[in-house]
Design goal:
Elements (H helix, E strand, L loop, with lengths): L20 H12 L14 H9 L3 H11 L3 H11 L6 H13 L4 H11 L10 H18 L1
Helix pairs in contact: 1-3, 2-5, 6-7
């Protein structure tokens, strides 16, 4: 059985408005059932940890919740709200979302991603969200289509 490449963008938010949370949920959900592609952690140190920190949720608590309950995305958001007493700090969410949108990969990472995708680095794509999307699509295509 092939493992699944997560293709929900870090630039996607659910109804709570938290960027990257849908992707984190998808990765953790796939990992919980042994279906996450090996190039991806269930919850890594980058956007995953940034999201958990912004929400004030412990990584292991989140991963255990996903593994034990296998929630839908909406159920996951409800759980997040329950952990926060029914509401989120909108200032923290805004700051987090700005950090996700504003993160820029270093030149070597950008070059590696674009080279793998067969796209010239003309300097027009610098943000990590779009570069990560391209990386996901490239890995997906090489695994599933090529």
């Amino acid at each position: 059985m092939s493992k699944i490449v997560p293709t929900i963008s870090s630039g996607t938010a659910g109804p709570l408005g938290v960027l990257h949370l849908p992707r984190l949920w998808q990765k953790a959900s796939l990992d919980a059932v042994g279906k996450l592609h090996g190039d991806y952690p269930a919850a890594g140190a980058g956007y995953d940890q940034m999201t958990l920190d912004a929400l004030g949720i412990d990584r292991e608590v989140f991963l255990n919740y996903i593994k034990d309950n296998k929630p839908s995305y909406i159920e996951c958001e409800k759980w997040v709200l329950d952990q926060k007493g029914g509401s989120l700090d909108q200032g923290a969410v805004s700051k987090h979302n700005d950090a996700v949108r504003g993160y820029i990969h270093d030149d070597d990472t950008r070059k590696e991603i674009l080279d793998a995708a067969g796209r010239a680095d003309d300097g027009s794509i610098k943000d990590a969200v779009n570069l990560n999307n391209i990386d996901d699509w490239t890995i997906f295509h090489k695994q599933e289509i090529a």
